[in-house]
Please model this.
Amino acid sequence: MPPDAAPDNSGAQSHYRALERLYRSAPVNRKFDSSLEIIEEGRSRLVFTVGEDDFHAAGAAHGTIYFKMLDDAAFYAANTLATDRFLLTTSFNLHFTKPVREGRVVAEGRWISGKRRVLVAESRLVDAQGDEIGRGTGTFMRSRIALSSLPGYRS
Model:
């Protein structure tokens, strides 16, 4: 397709960059060494660095860290399809595959189904050695909160 005939996806790209800003603006994310990238519609990638501050008493990352990474990756993958409303997690199932100690962890999110009121997305965690360490599936519902009303999304 000639360049002048390419579809204009600047609206989608603006939405993706706004979601990335929204992630960075959330106060809870100041507690984590993490970054979000929206790859395309229905896909996100979070990169986390897990350190000793994230450990339980036995010296590996606490399950809350797994949940945070998996939920965020699935949530943002789903929210790429909702350009008007903030989504809320209504349920999330996760499976621990392998403990993670220190290092870089990538959370990959992928939208599965739904576009109107309820959306379903899945995510997986991969450690620095390339091994899957966890997997999750979430259900997300459109809230009454307009994305445009959120300072992190607007700026």
About this structure: Strands lie at 33-40, 43-50, 85-96, 103-113, 118-126, 132-146. Confidence is low (pLDDT under 50) at residues 1-6. Helices lie at 10-25, 63-79, 151-154.
